[in-house]
Amino acid sequence: MIKTDNFSSFDKYIDNLKSKKVAIVGLGIGNIDLFKFLAENSVSVTGFDKSNDFDQLKSDLSSYTNAS
User: Fold this and answer.
1) pTM (2 decimals)?
2) Which of 22, 16, 21 is nearest to 3 (CA)?
3) What digits encode the pLDDT tens for the residues 8-39?
């Protein structure tokens, strides 16, 4: 786990995440926005959820080159 106090700004924290692989377990109300935010900021992110009802997100995946 990375301590956020090692970063002087949020942008540096996001830049650090770009060198990692991020998994989001559960794509509910809050995490779907987190998934999109990370993908839009070029973070390698994979989402997992027990539901298969994410048709809109699946269609958007092509625009997120680092998302699956």
Assistant:
1) 0.70
2) 16
3) 788 889 999 999 999 999 888 888 889 989 99
